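This is your field. Pick holes in the following sequence-structure pair:
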Amino acid sequence: MNSYLSVVAPGTGATTVLRARAVSKTYGDREVLKAVDLEVLAGEMLAITGPSGSGKSTLLHCLATIVQPDAGEITFGGLQLSRLAEARRSEMRRTCFGIMFQFGQLVPELSAAENVALPLLLRGMRRGEAIARATAVLDRFGVAEFAPARPSALSGGQAQRVAMARAVATDPTILFADEPTGALDSNSGARVLDELVALARAGTAVVMVTHDPAAASRADRVVELRDGMLEAPA
């Protein structure tokens, strides 16, 4: 796992790997996030819940540096992420953060192994080594047999596990998952949740946006967003 400076969260004994303070975001005349404070602890599975349109995905994308907040700060490893140039934030996403999108967003022209190898290749790893590592990660998630297959040949559950393998191929400190079970049947969704829990138990912080109470029930901690504000203590 990537090693970055973290601090002990007061009263918990756990280390804080990422901290958001007074994070706000506006689109047009709509304030989507309103001074949100949140800490992410090492090795925890954190669920962000709330009704549609409450700002869940926007918060996740701000935490993962995909979207820049309009105000407030997000700190990771002693770095204030909003002050970094886009090239540096992109590097952070390649090295320290893993990101799972709701519908996987696998590259359709690439095989499963090539999709998983992509972030490794972007880091400069040689192709042969990257494919070998990608195949090993696919095996970890039970889909190594689909390494040569393109996304169109995969079921929804298989594709989401390939997407998860891609997200963790770089051994990230934090995995951000946006509705990871939203497009899956109950059996496939339960397996993906099992794997997310296992990642957290192995030390990777998992931040999951979900509208599904069953998925949220697997988390160590749940916070709720309503109208852009957290209603549960962070």
Residues 139 and 145 are 8 Å apart (CA to CA). The first helix runs from residue 56 to 63. The chain has one domain: 7-230.
